Amino acid sequence: MKTVLFVILTAAITNNYVLVKFLGICPFLGVSKKLDQATGMSIAVIFVEVLATAVTWPIYHLLLAGKVDFTYMETVVFILVIAALVQLVEIVLKRYIPALHKSLGVYLPLITTNCGVLGVTMNNISDGLNYVDSLLTALGCGLGFFLAMVIFSGVRSRVEDAEPPKSFEGLPITLVSASIVSLSFFGFSGVLDRLFGG
User: Fold this and answer.
1) What are the pLDDT digits (tens) for 40-85?
2) Is the Cα torsion angle 165, 167, 171, 172 positive or negative in sign?
3) pLDDT 10s digits, 129-156
4) How far is CA 167 from CA 90, 171, 172, 180, 192, in A?
5) Which of 19, 70, 82, 196: CA 20 to 30 A from 163?
6) pTM
């Protein structure tokens, strides 16, 4: 249990793909204006990351790295798997939660090209993680994306209420805010290692 919690928290906090590794910035900046949109996008990303890892890990180890070496096809195959999963999520949202589907707009199909999702699946392979650790890492990365989106959504709502200087209005104040939130996550490095005796 201690190890499971450590893997998830490390992926979510100290190795946060958005705020520490700077992957998946497009939906982070594009869909974080409203909390409900940020939450919906985060849940979709968690689902896609975990499911993509569950599918791509066996594909890599059983097919691509099998008797005949097709590992050079890793990126292409992983993108195709992620695209198929995103289409599945889009169909489900359109059918059962049309309001969320409409509010996410173009950002939902962009999960296909979200380098955070692809990065999780590829890094799990390159880090030599086993299947269970890969799934736990994917879950942690998804929860980290959720955490980053919710925190940044709150920050953006506060920034909108403030009156920044004219030259900082719009995207500049958003980027400055994102960098400050990102810096706050660097303060967590080493904390989990001390907590779990790593």
Assistant:
1) 888 888 888 999 999 999 999 999 988 888 999 999 999 999 999 8
2) negative
3) 999 999 999 999 999 999 999 999 888 8
4) 38, 10, 8, 18, 39
5) 19
6) 0.86
Q: How many CA atoms lie within 13 A of 144 on its CB side?
A: 33
Return all residues near 97 (Cβ < 8 A) that are at least 6 apart. Answer: 40
Within 10 Å of residue 145's Cβ, how many Cβ atoms? 31
> Which strand (E) or helix (H) includes residue 37?
helix 35-58
CA distances from residue 163 to 110, 114, 160, 166 in whole angstroms, order as listed: 31, 32, 7, 8
AA letter at 39: T
At residue 31, φ and ψ (nearest 5 deg) are: -115, 10
Q: Which two tokens stand for residue 158?
A: 């506060």
User: What DSSP string describes 74-134?
Assistant: HHHHHHHHHHHHHHHHHHHHHHH-HHHHHHHGGGTGGGGG-HHHHHHHHHHHHTT--HHHH
Provide the residue type at 48 as one letter. V
DSSP state of 24: S
Asked whether the beta carbons of 52 and 111 are under 8 A apart, the reply is no
